[in-house]
Fold this sequence. Notes:
The chain is mainly α. Helix content is 79%, strand content 0%.
Amino acid sequence: MLMRPVKPAEAAQARLFEEILQAEIAELRELAYRMAQSLDQQPASGSTGPAGHLLRIHSRIDEIHRLLNALRGRFPHSQRDAELQPE
């Protein structure tokens, strides 16, 4: 399948979307870490509620990784360009 050339605006939008997805992963990882810490401090119970929430968080992180892989497949230069930008 031949892909049409990437327009500069599309590449810029892809970079922005990638940054948003990366930020979401960071937030979800922090949330999962705090939830795991909280679970470690709670006495064992028959409830799987918090563990279920952790599973959903990890599922969302996996989904975001799939989105990033698809985005990088379509715009392979977007990640490299973002790394080259001065902060």
